[in-house]
Amino acid sequence: MFTPIPRSCSSNSSAVHLADLLCSVAEQDEQAFDELYRQCSRRVYGLVRKVVVDDGMSADTTQDVFLTLWQGGTARYDPHKGSALSWILTIAHRKAVDKVRSEQSHRARDLRWSIKNQDLDYDHVSETVITREENAAVTESLKVLSVLQREAIHLAFYAGMTYSDVAEHLGIPLSTAKTRIRDGIQRLSLNLHIT
User: Fold this and answer.
1) pLDDT tens across 27-52, in order?
2) Segment 139-148 mean pLDDT
3) Count of domains in the chain?
């Protein structure tokens, strides 16, 4: 189970120390890994929790981030391209987004399977009413998004486009497409958990 250890990694000397720790972790130094975990686990978990929302899945995703670092992920770190903490948090964000997408994919697959394998004896009227209510709930939830976020999310999740596809389709930079989708998902998550 994930257990964050309270310690900060925000000062400049700490940033240099984190870069050194990443280099040591790349060489399978267990003490360096323990120290890296001690210094950054709280920040990683906090970021993951904002994206994933669920405590258990956030803890699992955080462990996955550190497992990736331990299993050779640190070899890709280039100190000339940014700070060690930023690099670690980028990995954490990607893992969190992947987790959300994976969960959505599992739910959609389970739903498709249950629809295909359901008993034929069911109330068509009741099913139609439930489907309309669910569609209305989704439509209502999407109203909290800006038009730009709604468009990007629709292309990503309903049309099945990748970030690159969305960016190309809308004629915007890739980073802008990612931001619209990420911010939209976060806004939807907040809206769904408040109501």
Assistant:
1) 999 999 999 999 999 999 999 999 99
2) 80
3) 2
User: Shortest CA distance to 52 belongs to which of 1, 107, 87, 104?
Assistant: 104
Task: Give me the pLDDT at residue 7, please.
Answer: 41
Confidence of residue 6 (pLDDT cuts 50, 70, 90): very low
The answer to whether 52 and 81 have CB atoms below 8 angstroms apart is: no
Domain of 49 in residue numbering reads as 12-97
Query: Would you place residue 61 in the very low, low, confident or very high pLDDT band (cuts 50, 70, 90)?
Result: very high
30-52 and 12-26 helices, crossing angle to 10°: 110
CA distances from 30 to 6, 20, 37, 63, 68 (A): 19, 13, 10, 15, 14
C-alpha span between 183 and 131 (Å, rounded): 27
Residues 61 and 129 in one domain: no
Which domain CATH number covers 42?
1.10.1740.10
pLDDT per residue as tens digits for the range 7-24: 434 444 566 689 899 889
Compute the distance between CA of residue 55 and CA of residue 40 in angstroms, rounded to an integer. Answer: 18
Q: Is the model's pTM score more than 0.70?
A: no
Element (H, E) at 123: none
Q: Is residue 4 part of a domain?
A: no
Q: Which residues contact 44 (CB under 8 A, 6 or more apart)?
A: 62, 65, 66, 88, 89, 92
